[in-house]
Write a structure and sequence with these properties.
It is a single chain. The chain is α/β, with parallel strands linked by helices. Helices cover 33% and strands 25% of the residues. β2 and β3 form a beta hairpin. α3 crosses α4. The radius of gyration is 25 Å and the shape is elongated.
Length: 231
C-alpha cells in the first residue's frame, strides 16, 4: 500500500530570499507572490531561516513605541532587534522546524500541530532546501476520488496485506467514507481490516459493517488475518 509522503504534496518551486535581501524587497515578494513566509537560504541553497509576515510586522509595530526598559524580557528584546533589522538575516526566525521529503503526511501534520507552525520547509540530508509544505498541502490527499480510494482499499490495503480466499467483504466508498459489509470468521480479523483501511490515503472514515462468527478478543494468543475475499 502506497503511503503518501511530504514530497508527494510539497511545493518544489519555492520562492526564496538570501540572507542579505533587503527588508523592502522581502515585503514586495510576500505581497506579489501572495505567500505569508519565505525561506532564507545561503549561497549553497541551504536553509538559513524563515522570514514571515509576523517577523516583518515587528518594524510596523515598533513605530511610536517607548524606549527599551532596563529589564525587558528576552522575547521583547528579540522583537526590538527584529524591528531594527534591515536585511533577511536580521529579521528571520531561526532555528526553523523542518521536514524531510520522506516524512509521512500524518507525521508532518502531527509535527505542525506540536510545534504550532503553519508550514515546514523541506530539506535534504545536507540541509539544502528542496521544497516547502503547508497545512493546505497536507489536505490534498483528501482530494482523491472515491474510485481511487476504493481501488487502493481493494487492490492494496486488502489484497496485498492479507490472503484473498474464504469469506467475502463488500467495499464501497462514498465521499471518502469506506463502507464495509460482509462477514469474516474472527472479530480480530474484522477489526484489523478496518484498521488497515483507515491508513489508506484519502480515507475520511470507515463505516464498519462487518460481522464475525467468533469473538476471539478474549482468547490468549489468538491469530488475526484470517483469509477473506473482496467484492
Amino acid at each position: 500500500m502506497k503511503t503518501w509522503h511530504v514530497d508527494d504534496v510539497m511545493t518544489k518551486d519555492v520562492v526564496t530570499v538570501r540572507e542579505g535581501t533587503p527588508y523592502r524587497d522581502i515585503v514586495g515578494l510576500l505581497l506579489s507572490r501572495r505567500v505569508s513566509a519565505l525561506p532564507v537560504v545561503d549561497d549553497r541553497g541551504r536553509l538559513a531561516g524563515l522570514v514571515s509576515e509576523a517577523d516583518l510586522l515587528h518594524k510596523v509595530g515598533a513605530a511610536g513605541r517607548q524606549a527599551p526598559r532596563m529589564f525587558d524580557t528576552w522575547r521583547r528584546h528579540t522583537d526590538r532587534v527584529k524591528a531594527r533589522g534591515h536585511i533577511a538575516v536580521e529579521v528571520m526566525t531561526w532555528p526553523v522546524v523542518t521536514a524531510e521529503p520522506s516524512l509521512t503526511l500524518a507525521a508532518a501534520a502531527r509535527r505542525m500541530h506540536r510545534e504550532h507552525v503553519r508550514r515546514l520547509p523541506v530539506v535534504d540530508s545536507s540541509g539544502r532546501l528542496v521544497g516547502i509544505v503547508t497545512r493546505s498541502d497536507l489536505l490534498k490527499v483528501h482530494r482523491r476520488t472515491d474510485a481511487e480510494i476504493r481501488h487502493d482499499v481493494v487492490e492494496q490495503a486488502l489484497h496485498h496485506v492479507m490472503a484473498v480466499k474464504g469469506a467475502t467483504v463488500r467495499v464501497e466508498c462514498v465521499g471518502g467514507v469506506v463502507i464495509l459489509a460482509g462477514r469474516v470468521r474472527f472479530r480480530s480479523t474484522a477489526e484489523l481490516i478496518a484498521q488497515v483501511i483507515r491508513q489508506v490515503p484519502g480515507v475520511v472514515d470507515v463505516a464498519d459493517g462487518l460481522g464475525f462468527d467468533v469473538d476471539d478478543s478474549l482468547i490468549s494468543g489468538s491469530r488475526v488475518g484470517t483469509p477473506f475475499g473482496v467484492v
